[in-house]
Design brief:
heterodimer, A: mainly alpha, Rna Polymerase Sigma Factor, Chain: A, Arc Repressor Mutant, subunit A, disordered C terminus, B: alpha+beta, Jelly Rolls, 3 domains, 13-stranded mixed sheet, 18 strands, 31% strand
Chain lengths: 213, 377
């Protein structure tokens, strides 16, 4: 199990208390808490974290502070920009749901992976996060190609088992996610290009999206 | 390998199957499977429904783990947060913004570039998964497909993934299509011997000309001799049927429809019987085991005769060579011949006829011979 996951499980309540100072809704607190884990775990994949508890709490505080600032900024910006963006907002909301859905899945996947033994987690992340080929991983870890394949294969089977234990259908976990990604890919086409009038572009792309459905 | 697969089917261990499935997914990932490994993978995949199920499920999960790439963004966001100069503005959309859907237009534009790179990767990965699933579906519907052709004088043995084997005689073509529900063989031309692994759920049907020879578990040979179908059953039994003429399976693709085409059942023949049929059964003989062995001696690379007329011997020999052999004298055609020859050695065979049977062989051209009575008789 990764140090961050271990620390997170021990200090989840402390992290939640940090966000409870800034938000009232339980759901919001939960989301920020999970995002804290995600950021800390993502950082852990890049560097060795010496004091996981302190690191988690710092990430949580920074997140809370920046969210607080942003709430203020966003309100200001919204007032300035409120004219002519209504269509855009409506459409974006679809992809926003997907993004949140995607983020929750990323949290679930990250927690499952964080719970794997070091060797397996490392090989799987090199493959899926860094997008390295098995041969490259073998060179980096100085092990044989078949060892890498075995480690990643074992990691995949372990993910499958843990997801089932957590009450997810591993196969469905994939398909729901894929559907979300497809919708996100579609919604991307609606993003206006910088030199075009936003409303016109939006309606163009809207019809393109409809014709695809 | 067959025994391995058998033991896996008899004692299914889902953990073990999952481990194997995962390993195959990895080997398939970077496309560096050897031909032998691909064959092994195919065999593994079709040998059990449990294997396919495990493979499909784990492949779906494997594809969905591409989401981990997004961790890169989150790691970057933490880096920014840790340096005091770069605060919130560069670290992407916040949960709050996403929840309420209020995002300044300019920011949305900046963000879309980042979102695009993530989603572009995700989409590419998705296409990869779709390609993989298509392959799997394809594998499920059509588990094995192949076309095997032997040249003149050549013989070939095909070991099929279900344990059946086809031994293909000279100058023949056999197309094989295995589906979930049937094993369909098309003998396009020539002769083949089929050793069929028993499977009642999946009949093994040999389509030859306008006839169909269907077996469940047996060993038999089929020879498409002009339009006539010559069947010898060595073990078990086979059902004969004819199909309307003009419904020739000209394309391998149409084989899939073969099952739905009307067939007129002609009856069942059992071990030790030899039938020649097309629209109807034209001849049905009990054949002594020794005769069957001789008729099928080509399987051991030999041609054996025990008193067959010379015309028949010449017809048999001709199947292994591009040399045309003429017999002008009608009285010679009935001359009984006994002997056994190696299939590949056509010249030696001709020479043996010349010396042993005391016939005169006249070489008319490089590819043409004539058999004559010795001049002094």
């Amino acid at each position: 199990m990764s140090k961050i996951l271990h620390a997170f499980q021990q200090h989840e309540k402390s992290i939640k208390r940090i966000f409870a100072r800034y938000c009232r809704r339980h759901e919001e607190i939960e989301d920020y808490t999970q995002e804290t884990f995600l950021k800390a775990f993502a950082a852990e994949t890049k560097t060795d974290i010496q004091n996981p508890k302190a690191f988690l709490l710092r990430v949580a505080k920074n997140l809370a502070l920046s969210e607080l600032k942003r709430k203020v900024n966003t309100n200001t910006d919204h007032i300035e920009d409120s004219g002519g963006t209504e269509v855009l907002i409506d459409e974006r909301q679809v992809s926003i749901e997907n993004q949140i859905d995607g983020q929750r899945k990323l949290v679930v996947a990250s927690k499952v992976i964080a719970s794997l033994p070091e060797h397996h987690r490392q090989a799987l992340l090199m493959r899926k996060m860094e997008k390295l080929k098995f041969k490259q991983i073998a060179t980096r870890l100085n092990v044989s190609l078949s060892t890498v394949e075995k480690r990643v294969a074992t990691a995949l089977v372990q993910c499958n088992t843990r997801l089932r234990e957590e009450g997810y259908d591993p196969a469905e976990f994939g398909s729901v996610l894929s559907a979300g990604l497809a919708a996100e890919a579609n919604s991307l086409r609606q993003q206006p290009s910088p030199d075009a009038d936003s409303n016109e572009k939006t309606s163009d792309n809207k019809s393109e999206l409809e014709s695809e459905q | 390998m067959t025994t391995d697969t058998d033991s896996i089917i008899s004692f299914p261990d889902s953990k073990e199957i999952e481990a194997q499935a995962a390993l195959w997914i990895m080997r398939a990932e970077d496309n560096d499977m050897s031909a032998a490994q691909q064959q092994e993978f195919q065999t593994w995949l079709i040998s059990s429904y449990k294997h396919r199920e495990a493979y499909t499920k784990l492949a779906a999960l494997w594809g969905s783990l591409d989401i981990l790439e997004e961790l890169n963004d989150h790691a970057a966001a933490v880096d920014h947060q840790q340096s005091p100069k770069n605060t919130a503005k560069t670290s992407g959309p916040t949960l709050w913004e996403r929840l309420i859907g209020l995002r300044p237009f300019i920011t949305a534009r900046a963000l879309s570039a980042r979102a695009f790179s993530v989603s572009a990767f995700a989409t590419i990965a998705l296409i990869g998964i779709l390609g993989l699933s298509y392959q799997i579906i394809n594998n499920l519907n059509q588990l094995h497909q192949g076309s095997y052709i032997t040249a003149l004088g050549e013989q070939q043995t095909i070991n099929l993934p279900d344990g059946s084997a086809i031994q293909i005689n000279t100058n023949s073509q056999v197309d094989v299509t295995y589906t979930e529900t049937a094993r369909i063989i098309r003998l396009v031309s020539g002769e083949a011997y089929f050793d069929v692994a028993p499977n009642k759920q999946k009949p093994f049907s040999v389509y030859a000309g306008n006839g169909v020879v269907t077996a469940v578990g047996t060993a038999f040979s089929v020879f498409l001799n002009n339009e006539k179908i010559d069947v010898i059953v060595e073990e078990g039994s086979v059902a004969l049927a004819s199909r309307p003429s003009g419904s020739n399976l000209s394309e391998t693709n149409s084989i899939a429809q073969a099952n739905s085409q009307p067939q007129a059942p002609l009856g069942v023949i059992t071990a030790g019987q030899k039938a020649i049929f097309e629209k109807t059964v034209e001849s049905l003989d009990m054949v002594a085991p020794a005769t069957i062995q001789r008729k099928l001696s080509w399987r051991q690379g030999r041609l054996a005769f025990a008193g067959e007329p010379l015309a028949e011997v010449v017809a048999s020999v001709s199947r292994y060579t591009d040399v045309t052999i003429d017999i002008d004298d009608p009285s010679l055609r009935e001359l009984p011949i006994a002997g056994s020859f190696n299939v590949g050695e056509v010249d030696a065979m001709i020479e043996a006829l010349e010396i042993m049977i005391d016939l005169r062989i006249e070489r008319i051209g490089p590819k043409r011979l004539r058999i004559l009575r010795p001049e002094n008789i």
